Fold:
Amino acid sequence: MNKRFIKKGLVFCMIASLTLGGIIPGQGAYAASTKSTQEKTVKNVIMLIPDGMSVGASTLARYMLDEKGDIPLAIDEYVTAMVKTRWANGPITDSAPAGTALSTGNKSISGALGVDEDLIPKASLLEAAQMKGKATGVIATSEFMHATPAAYTAHEAKRSNYAAIAEQMLYQNLDVMFGTGASKVDKSTLDIIATAESLGYTIIDDKRELKATKATKVWGNFTSTTGGSNNLSYDLDRNAATEPSLAEMTSKAIKILSKDKDGFFLMVEGSKIDWAAHANDTVGIATDVLAFDDAFKAAVDFAKKEGNTLVIAVTDHGNSGITIGNSYVSPAYDKDPFSVLAPLKGATKTAEGAIALLDATKSTQSKNEALKAYGIDPTDTTLKAEIDAFMADPTIATLVKTMNKKAVIGYTSLGHTGEDVPLYVCAPSSVELPKGVIDNTEVAEYIADAMGVDLAKTTSKLFIDITDVSTLDSATNEFTIKSSSGKAITVKANQSTAYIDGKAYSLDGQVTVYINNHFYAPKTLVNLISAK
Structure:
């Protein structure tokens, strides 16, 4: 085990158990074990990513629970280390190489998914778990082919190539996919829902169906209350009767995946923390951090009962440079009471949800309603300039500036930031915990070690370069390879089925990849070529 990792699983998980009134020290699921990590690996891994969650964001979320910030978040007790977030060529990363580092243990370039700096595909933790016979699942509050979920399930040079990414994810043979965004790809290019159904998925599209389904292979394409068809609502804007929360999706996925006797790997992303940070929407950031925290708690509650589950959370990068305190309070920053943050709690909608209240003519009445929904009194004279700006131009940008002045919240950016971020780990006592400052690639290495998989060996089995023996039909995106007996074997890039004389042969969910003018195929296809 890497010397950065220390055997403290008992310490960190037992603290939480005592706080939550759970396991008695020495008697529960996380009691001391005499086995080392090398002798015992975890059965399940739940990895949660609060996309774009800076430390300022989690601090603000705590103040939403209590005026003085004394009520802890569920994640608070599990901080074990700090993680560096740089990509291959710079300090401030895009989500694609950031997700790739966390999923494969490799640095990559901007916009690239599941590949190294040379655009060579690398196996993800999810794929390694599949090869070990484990069930797998992915959850996101964005479209499912967005950068972070795609980094675990696809290999593509351009994160914007949604059709190729979606096709790879469909044929990856996941057990659970919860998110949205099927309409993001035109049906004439790829009918995502019809393809999912043909691959044996049960399709669900609302909270009622999520709760009711007993299927073990489920594709959830949920509909947003306010955010359109390609992302789910911010938690504050969500219609709780029809749209599931991140915690509800997490609990249901765990229930489905835990039926597999070999265990499971689940990746959960709180996607829209990042989106709120890009918009400098403090209300959206803080409330979606709380929703993520609920999902983390659901994972930890399961882990404590099950006894051999690793729960790990880390953001892929910071975003926005959010601070409690801004230029309006300098130099009197030490004179403001806790009540300066109170306006945040008065919001009933995020900025996105408040703007959705505007009527077609953007009437004064509807603009006042939007201000009130965001926690702003339209008659507040201390915000006259900001309110006037909003009334003249009612946008998310002018709305958030009003709140951020009122609640003395500062921002340095509308984009990602390059600071180190906390790592949260709840592990069985047999598993060591990371310590100090580690690299984002080391997070993947740590999980692989705990799960008993080798990412490099998995890569060598999943991505064999057979470009020189393959012929591409660019019209159909199909490759033809000759078998040892001269038979033609055809396989479409981004899929996991080969054909010989019209007969289909499954590649066990192991997807072929065409990237950077190279065709990569799994060993199962190479073996098929030799056998036929």
The chain has 19 helices and 24 strands. The domain at 463-531 is CATH 3.30.457.10 (Copper Amine Oxidase; Chain A, domain 1). The first strand starts at residue 5 and ends at 6.
